Amino acid sequence: MSARIKGIFKIDDITSTNPLAVGDEVEIDVESETANTAIITEIHPRRNYINRQSPAHKKHHHIVAANIDQSLLFATLKDPKTSQGFIDRFLVTSEAYHVPAIVVFNKADLYKNKELEKYATLKEVYNDIGYKTVLMSIKTGEGVEEVRELLKGKTTLLSGHSGVGKSSFINSIFPEMRLKTQDVSGWSGKGLHTTTFAEMFDLPLDGKVIDTPGMREFGLVDISRQELSHYFPEMAKLITECQFNNCLHINEPGCAVKNALETGSVNVDRYISYCNILDSIDEKNY
Ligand SMILES: Nc1nc2c(ncn2[C@@H]2O[C@H](COP(=O)(O)OP(=O)(O)OP(=O)(O)O)[C@@H](O)[C@H]2O)c(=O)[nH]1
Ligand SMILES: [Mg+2]
Ligand SMILES: [Zn+2]
């Protein structure tokens, strides 16, 4: 069945480049039984959605997916490299939209000591603040079963840079799928997108998974400088102890976050991500 939209829909009072997102629940009128087509007459209110700022037009938003239970960020420490800044931006967005996030480090088969040490460090940092991490290799099968278990009975959004193995993962747990993946020569460094639009699949094990095209950056939307620290869980629990209730945790006196940074209970790299994101938020919007 293919369904199309007629007329103009305005949802959630946001200006979006796509009125209908993957994961939306809709009402349809069957248009033609023979041609198997329908018209979408109503879009149900969304439980949640992940919204992304268009890299080209800061005022344009794009809804990546709606009605999701969790998001799996696919990261790789090699071919291609995912930066911690990118991971942290993604986690902030997930917190802001109340979508639980898990970070999957794929291509473990390519990791040498350097990358394995990096993974151990990141695992500790993220586990300490409440995020699950999994080390996986689709090539060797390591960790694949563990990630598959996490999908049971849930609607899961897969995201991450192009070439990190999102489509390959769906194919590996669901071989009948045969999604298009990058050719066997693997990551070429050219940043070509193999998956070009988001698509949702029903998994045989009860659950749905949404494959998305890789993203180069993850623009934040609807987050003010003042509220940013609420979306860093390790900072959120400290902010009531800051001397000033409008503390941005930069150089204010009596800042509980800066104190925690000294003692090591807030990780330095996470704090750097916080500062970078804070810098990137255009205060004029608020
Ligand atoms: N060595 C190794 N290669 C992998 C692994 N997983 C995926 N690949 C390869 O990485 C390349 C990219 O995989 P895709 O599944 O197309 O990546 P994607 O995340 O769907 O990329 P986009 O659709 O562009 O966003 C392919 O050549 C895969 O064979 C892995 O665990 N180890
Ligand atoms: Mg893909
Ligand atoms: Zn502070």
> Which of globular, elongated, flat, extended, rod-shaped describes the shape?
globular
Bound ligands: guanosine-5'-triphosphate, magnesium ion, zinc ion
**Helix percentage range:** 10-25%
Total strands: 11
Physical arrangement of strands within the biggest beta sheet:
8-7-6-9-11-10
Distance between the termini: 43 Å
Please identify the structural class as seen in this structure: alpha/beta
Notable traits:
single chain; alpha/beta; 3-stranded mixed β-sheet; binds guanosine-5'-triphosphate; binds magnesium ion
Write up this protein.
The protein is an alpha/beta fold and 286 residues long. 24% of the residues lie in helices and 21% in strands. The protein is built from 7 helices and 11 strands. It has helices at residues 84-96, 113-128, 144-151, 166-173, 233-236, 256-263, 268-280, and strands spanning 2-5, 26-32, 37-43, 49-53, 61-66, 70-76, 101-106, 132-135, 155-159, 199-202, 208-211. The strands form 3 sheets. A 6-stranded mixed sheet has the order 8-7-6-9-11-10, sandwiched between helices. A 3-stranded mixed sheet has the order 1-3-2, with no helix packed on it. A two-stranded antiparallel sheet has the order 4-5. The model has no long low-confidence stretch (mean pLDDT 85). Magnesium ion (MG) binds at residues 166-167, 194-195, 211. The site of guanosine-5'-triphosphate (GTP) has 23 residues, from helix 4.
